[in-house]
Design a protein that fits this description.
By secondary structure, the protein is α/β, with parallel strands linked by helices. The chain folds into 2 domains: about 5-220, P-loop containing nucleotide triphosphate hydrolases (Rossmann fold, 3-Layer(aba) Sandwich), CATH 3.40.50.300; about 230-295, Alpha-Beta Plaits (2-Layer Sandwich), CATH 3.30.70. The chain is built from 11 helices and 14 strands. The chain has helices at about 45-50, 75-80, 95-105, 110-125, 140-150, 170-185, 195-200, 220-230, 245-250, 275-285, 300-310; strands at about 5-15, 20-25, 30, 35-40, 60-65, 80-85, 160, 190-195, 205-210, 215-220, 235-240, 255-265, 265-270, 290-295. The strands form 3 sheets. A 6-stranded mixed β-sheet has the order 6-7-8-4-9-10, with helices on both faces. Strand 7 (about 160), helix 6 (about 170-185) and strand 8 (about 190-195) form a beta-alpha-beta unit. The longest helix has 16 residues, at about 170-185. The model has no long low-confidence stretch (mean pLDDT about 90). Bound molecules: adenosine-5'-diphosphate and magnesium ion (MG). Magnesium ion binds near residues 45, 86, 162 and 163.
Length: about 300
């Protein structure tokens, strides 16, 4: 791998009693990326994040975050990471501004800088008008946005967001995701966990899918799409009248075709590249009539469904 890993785990495992919450995880997250850490509820996402933060001990395996071991050097890790937990905890009786300044003080940021930065961040997350209101008056979405400001105030190298979009209305989700995407532009590496991949896929550069404590796949959406469609890079769906074995054989012989599956009048063709033109020609030269043809595009949902069906 040419890119620098900022998070690296080897065989990272967490056992609770007789339950394996995280099972021999090998994770690589590159500097500057928005890594989508995906999987259904109970998959082990939060447990993994807590181990990476040094907030819970691993049972076995190793982890490195920004070059530090969360078990042996937890304070060094805490200094360079930001974390927005699933359930954001603010001081409800303090205002938004006071909460940010409190976090800044805890992180040793001088008062004046904290005040200036707090103001800028409140503005960025769209809360400057309610900056002097107590957090107890905030909606869940507003608290999440304050949470993002709270993560940002310490200038982290890596920011962990655990299910930041859960329980927010659609408009709030967009706001939260846009803010996180903007953070990434400022060279912060982001780890974003979610069990609702369609919400987060558009801002992730790479994803890892976790199920029952195991990392099933990790890679860019394109790479995963390729695996999901059986080795080919694209899949073309062709509907023809009365497909014959001879036609299927001719399609299989087209250079670049890696597989053909048929059911009734539908042919599912995996290929290295978009071969619609060549396929159309073969069908035209056969006894069958081309009814329709489409290039199947794989979104993360299809990939997710595929990998989850197999577990
Ligand atoms: N403190 C704990 N004690 C016992 N079991 C736990 C604890 N925390 C999590 N688990 C179990 O570990 C598994 C993974 O949980 P979690 O990491 O919270 O998953 P996710 O965040 O993906 O929903 C679940 O089966 C959960 O019940
Ligand atoms: Mg969780």
């Amino acid at each position: 791998m040419s890119q620098q890993s900022i998070i690296e785990t080897t065989g990272l495992t967490k056992v609770y009693g007789n339950k394996i919450a995280v099972d021999k995880l090998n994770l690589h997250i590159n500097e500057g990326e928005v890594f989508g850490f995906l999987g259904p509820n109970g998959a082990g996402k939060t447990t993994t994040i807590l181990m990476l933060l040094g907030l819970t001990e691993s049972t076995s395996g190793t982890a490195k975050v920004c070059g530090y071991s969360p078990t042996r050097e937890p304070l060094k890790v805490k200094r360079v990471v930001g974390y927005l937990p699933e359930k954001v905890g603010f001081y409800e009786d303090l205002t938004a501004r006071q909460n940010l300044e409190y976090t800044a003080a805890l992180n040793g940021i001088p008062r004046e800088a904290a005040s200036r930065k707090g103001g800028e961040l409140l503005d960025m997350v769209g809360l400057s008008e309610v900056a002097e209101q107590k957090v107890s008056t905030f909606s869940h979405g507003m608290k999440q946005r304050l949470g993002i400001a709270d993560v940002m105030i310490k200038d982290p190298k890596v920011a962990f967001f655990d299910e930041p979009t859960a329980g927010i209305d659609p408009e709030g989700i967009d706001q939260v995701l846009n803010l996180i995407a903007n953070m990434a532009k400022q060279k912060v590496t982001i780890v974003l966990s979610s069990h609702q991949l369609h919400q987060v896929q558009k801002i992730c550069t790479r994803v890892g899918i976790l199920a029952k404590g195991r990392l099933i796949v990790q890679g860019s959406i394109n790479e995963l799409g390729r695996e999901a469609i059986g080795g080919g890079k694209v899949r073309i769906e062709v509907q023809v009248s009365q497909p014959t074995p001879k036609l299927i054989e001719s399609i299989r012989n087209i250079k670049g075709v890696t597989g053909v599956e048929s059911s009734d009048d539908l042919l599912l063709i995996s290929c290295d590249e978009d071969l619609r033109r060549q396929i159309a020609k073969v069908v035209a030269d056969s006894d069958s009539l081309l009814i329709q043809m489409k290039l199947e595009e794989y979104g993360l949902d299809d990939i997710y469904m595929k990998y989850f069906r197999e577990t």
